[in-house]
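Tokens as discussed.
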């Protein structure tokens, strides 16, 4: 019997619904359950054919355990090695190389020194930086946000340079990015599963969190196709099996705003019944597909085209 496990934290609706849906499909030789860990021994044989990871970004113990499981042959969704290396500044650079429109972006050093460093640790960094060139690149108004992480945490709208310096000082040791603000006419949040299944959801980030999926945007067929292309291209490039891409539409062009969400919101109360049904059923079917193809003793992770092309060269 091949087991599909889901590793999760405080969320409730998606994990139970996912397990129930996999088991309801009744595929012979495949079952789903909540992951349970009572020991973590290096090189120990893997118990699960597939694990859906919803929490290791917040629990380093889980991330290390998942890497060991992947080495033994578990298909971990998402790839814990790539997830550990990923961040938004690189993502934007990769998007440019894939010809996906993104806002103009600059990486900012933390305002305060990181732990265990001194001024001598930064002798390769010119300070003050060329702020005028940076501001010309992004323009104002701009957005400042952490270079890694998600959930609309610590995101600031920066109207001018004076506000920039004040807010940057408040971010203390956080490494941030400064990004051109895209004044959008429409906005969409898009699930992508398996690098091939896409659900495009109207989304209004200016609404309260509970009401953000209550948006009346309706894409034209041409815009829908452009967004689907961007979502598939980005996720295939990054190698994510489960992710969301946020797209802001300006003058008919979808700009990828945020596409580093490898544990995307899938709660019934926030995404709504129709989106919830889609993500539960699609994720269940995809996990069953991966379990059927999985073989212990070999690599069963998904690697993005960026890394695969680098290895080939």
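Sequence:
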């Amino acid at each position: 019997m091949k087991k599909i496990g889901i590793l999760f934290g405080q969320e409730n609706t998606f994990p139970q619904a996912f397990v129930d849906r996999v088991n309801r499909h009744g595929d012979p030789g495949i079952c789903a359950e909540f992951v349970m860990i009572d020991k973590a021994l290096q090189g120990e044989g893997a118990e699960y054919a597939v694990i859906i990871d919803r929490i290791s970004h917040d629990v380093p113990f889980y991330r290390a355990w998942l890497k060991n499981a992947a080495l033994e042959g578990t298909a971990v969704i998402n790839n814990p090695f790539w997830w550990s290396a990923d961040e938004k500044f690189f993502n934007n650079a990769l998007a440019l190389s894939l010809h996906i429109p993104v806002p103009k972006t600059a990486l900012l050093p933390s305002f305060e020194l990181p732990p265990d460093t001194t001024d001598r640790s930064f002798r390769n960094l010119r300070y003050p930086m060329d702020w005028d060139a940076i501001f010309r690149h992004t323009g104002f108004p701009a957005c400042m946000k952490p270079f890694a992480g998600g959930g609309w945490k610590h995101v600031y709208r920066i109207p001018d340079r004076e506000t920039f310096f004040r807010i940057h000082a408040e971010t203390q040791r956080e490494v941030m990015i400064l990004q051109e603000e895209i004044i959008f006419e429409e906005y969409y949040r898009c699930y992508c599963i398996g690098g091939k299944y896409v659900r495009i959801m109207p989304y209004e980030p200016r609404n309260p969190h509970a009401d953000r999926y209550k948006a009346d945007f309706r894409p034209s067929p041409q815009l829908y196709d452009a967004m689907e292309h961007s979502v598939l291209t980005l996720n295939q490039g990054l190698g994510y099996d489960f992710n969301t891409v946020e797209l802001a539409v300006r003058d008919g062009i979808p700009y990828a705003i945020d596409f580093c969400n490898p544990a995307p919101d899938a709660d019934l109360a926030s995404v709504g019944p129709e989106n919830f049904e889609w993500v539960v059923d699609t994720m269940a079917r995809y996990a069953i597909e991966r379990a059927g193809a999985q073989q212990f003793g070999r690599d069963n992770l998904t690697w993005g085209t960026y890394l695969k092309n680098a290895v080939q060269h």
